Amino acid sequence: MTQTGSRVGVWLIGARGAVATTAVVGASAMCAGLAEPTGCVTARAEFPDEHLPPLNTLVFGGHDLPGPALIERAQALVRDRALPAQLLEPCEKDLTAAEQEIREGYAGPMGGPRFTAGTSQAEVAGALAADIDDFRRRLGLARVVVVHVASTEPPVPPRAEHNDLEALERALPSVTDLLPPSSLYAYAALMAGCPYIDFTPSPGARLPALTALARRRELPLAGSDAKTGETLLQTALAPMFAARNLRVRAWSGTNLLGGGDGATLAAPGPAASKTLSKRRTLQQMVGDDIEGTVRIDCVPALGTWKTAWDHVAFDGFLGVRMSMQFTWQGCDCALAAPLVLDLARLTAAAHAAGLAGPLAPLAFFFKDPVDRPPADLADQYRDLRAFATALHAR
């Protein structure tokens, strides 16, 4: 990819995962003219391109735990039919360059090869922030956007320090478990002067103390939990029932996932984070009193592919009972990766424009956006377009 001009860093937490790997391959392939920008919202004509960092100015790096290199992850995705085999050779140089910019991350208070048990979270955050700062300075980047695409974490028990920035910063030098890893990464990113994107439903920057830190340091935030499949359809279909004054009585969904995401969400804690995010969106659109559940089941044979089946029961005129069912089958990393690129470009432009705090117009991309903006997909898209136009006018 082009190495000149005002380049923007994209620092990926979970940098060797399927989503991160696909984002790097996708950016490389599009820059080389080997792939169309299908799935990239910012490639649509409604989004003025001149105010967004071009794809060929994005430089990738990130944090992850030791594991297979990016080229090996890409080869595995080819075997899983998630990446076209013909892209591996022409994109290998960019995968290797991104691999060289990956630093060992944080595994939690139990310690690991880099951070031993008992290391204070202030020390961990300082080391993580230094990695990002080194990336920015060494490569001469105009700015760096940090995107959390690592595994989903369980909900966190409330702590008083989560709501008070000063109390949080007083405590971090003497504690090892005050912040979950996603929130410690968010803290480190903000301390390094970088915008932060919560792509997963992990706590991340959603803690009030971290939102306050972002505003203090004049940094934008976006999130959380990108909608790529079932919830995307729900936010398009639920407004239809409301507009036609049809009463939704029940809405149940079953999600079958493979790969690392399926394995993570097989655990009750991470599954609780994901199902809460999904259900909250639906309830906002059709009401809290609807029946039904959301299930997530791990099916390893699916690999990086996923299937969602939904059943909707509703009342029509004169109380006649009716129903609708739909099935969504997709490749999770191929659905998510273009959104990572969109969010990195939009958030970088917001940072350049001096915006700070949660970026409500980016709700279009998320299941559980901050400040509870309208959940209707069409309304969110209108707000996103207006946001992009306003950035262009600055």
TrEMBL record:
InterPro entries: Myo-inos-1-P_Synthase, Myo-inos-1-P_Synthase_GAPDH, NAD(P)-bd_dom_sf. Keywords: Isomerase. SUPFAM superfamilies: Glyceraldehyde-3-phosphate dehydrogenase-like, C-terminal domain (SSF55347), NAD(P)-binding Rossmann-fold domains (SSF51735). One of its GO terms (biological process) is inositol biosynthetic process. Residues 229-332 form the Myo-inositol-1-phosphate synthase GAPDH-like domain. One of its GO terms (molecular function) is inositol-3-phosphate synthase activity. Its EC number is 5.5.1.4. Belongs to the myo-inositol 1-phosphate synthase family. This is Myo-inositol-1-phosphate synthase. It comes from Streptomyces zagrosensis. The lineage of its organism: Bacteria, Bacillati, Actinomycetota, Actinomycetes, Kitasatosporales.
